[in-house]
Amino acid sequence: MSISIKDVEHVANLARLELSDADKEQFAGQLNAILKYAEKLNELNTDDIEPTSHVLPLANVMREDEVKPSLTIEKAMLNAPEEEDDQFKVPAVLE
To answer: Which residues does UniProt assign to the signal peptide (predicted)?
Structure first.
C-alpha cells in the first residue's frame, strides 16, 4: 500500500488545508515511511498470540453499592442558613 500525492491532496481538502507542492511531496514521503515501518508488524509470528481488545484486563474500579443510613432531616438542616418546611430555602433566581 502506498500513499500518493492524490491521497495527500484529498486528505488536505477534507481538512481544509492548503498545501504547497513541496508540502504534498514531503507528507506523501513521510506517510509512506510510516506505512513501511508498520508493515514490519506483518513479519511477526502471531500464531500463538490470542487476539485482544485491551492490553490490560478490564475490571470495574467502582465499589459495590451498599445501603447505609443517611442523615436525618434535622441533622441536614443544622448548617442551613435558612430552611422552610424541612427544605433548604434559597433566594429566587428568576428575572
So the answer is: none
